[in-house]
Amino acid sequence: MNRPAPTFTTTAAGWRRASGWLGLAGLIAFACADLEVTRGDPGEEMMRVGLGLLRPDFLATEGLGRALANTLAFAFQGVALGAAAGFLLALFWHRRAVRAGAASVRAVHELFWGLLLMQVTGLSTLTGVLAIALPYAGIFAKVFGEFLEEADPAPAVALPDDRRRLGRFFYARLPLIWASCKAYTGYRLECALRASAILGFIGLPTLGFHLETAFREGHYGEGAALLYLLFLLVLTLRFWLRPLLLPVYLLAALSWAPPVWTGSLQTLVRFVTEDLVPAPLKNDGGVAELWVWLGTLWSEQIGPGVWHTLVLGLAALLLTALLALVLFPLRSPLFGNRVSRGLGHFILVVLRTTPEFFLAFFFLIMLGPSMLPGILALGLHTGAIIAHLTARFSEGLTLRDDSPRGLNRYAFEVLPRLYPNFLAFLLYRWEIIMRETAVLGILGIHTLGFYIDSSVAEFRFDRTLVLILATVGLNLGVDAFSRWLRGRLRLSTRGQPVE
């Protein structure tokens, strides 16, 4: 006997139940999180940072032009390589092995790729380019593959049967997704500029390297200038990024920082066959010793790292949801006036343009090391992204002429109609929040990234590999649960670049 399709009422009840359980998990995470402010006088430090932001010093940083050029070069080359590889993988997206491989490489953050690659390629252009290209290849494969799956099959079916498969693809399928692919690649280049800057925190000569140095030494005016320069790059992207100029930009990036590997094959072989091999196996130990080694690693690092990553991620997810619900009316045309919407748009642009890694770094300086800086950073950045997407979706709503105003309009007219999309955006970003949560450990927060960074510093790369695999497993698990929940609740983010 066929089961009846779910009605709107039962789906809405599912949305409420899911929101309630996620909210409860977030509250429990807040209760378990370390929220201590260890800075003696955070107000005074915040004032110093604020004054530095108001008085940027653009002339203090030596080598600023070179750092800016490196940031651009890494981003352009990484996106070009990642998009090409991702497009090829997307052609085979129907194969389970391709899906699994793409999911695995994109689950590893650019900084973790950089830490691993640095052991073979050093502080080189190749490290920066591959650190961006590898995870982006997985992301592009997923997005392009979904574009192909959702494209109308009718044009390909209408072609004559004697048309070769390659011709069928270029004439009947590619034109349908080309505009979406171009738009998404431009969005991903914006993300790559931020990722390229962040790579400076592990020593690569990008804007982030100078920014970290300036803020750690208390030169907040100098750090503010570097941050504003990154804003300028990202916010003006649509004006200077033209399709006809892309070959010129890419050639300039290649000539400025050619990704040449100056190492040897022997170095690569030794790293893979010796450094990444678990210590018991290198010392001719048996399976029993390997299990003891893994058990010790789990109890001392993996277990605590996974727990802290989950706690911080769930607390950040709750804060993200609350901030997005509060912030989206600032940008929505259904509320306020032109001045308030302009101010709201500016606030959201600043928050979503500032990488969460940078925000966490600033809050660590002002509040001291705890989970609180990470929760605030992830909540503000991702909350602004979801608020922006929700506000954009509200532009398609039409209200009655006699609809209420103010809080009643928000609670009874707008939010019930937007909530499914808001919840879809939130669940889609959950895996990304967890991915970023893990990497915040490089700043000293005790998530999985903290133990990964420590193992690299100690040259225990066998531990590094196992910890990164634990990060991949956690991210894939959260992603699978999020996809299952979105499917169960019939939620979709189709057409919105939330990846």
Automatic annotation (TrEMBL):
Subcellular location: Cell membrane
Keywords: Cell membrane, Membrane, Transmembrane, Transmembrane helix, Transport
Alphabetized PROSITE patterns for the sequence: PROKAR_LIPOPROTEIN
InterPro entries hit by this protein: MetI-like_sf (IPR035906)
Residue stretches spanning the membrane: 72-93, 113-137, 192-211, 223-241, 306-330, 432-452, 464-485
Lipid bilayer topology: Multi-pass membrane protein
Entries under PANTHER family matching the protein: ABC TRANSPORT SYSTEM PERMEASE PROTEIN P69 (PTHR30043:SF1), PHOSPHONATES TRANSPORT SYSTEM PERMEASE PROTEIN (PTHR30043)
UniProt-recorded name of the protein: Binding-protein-dependent transport system inner membrane protein
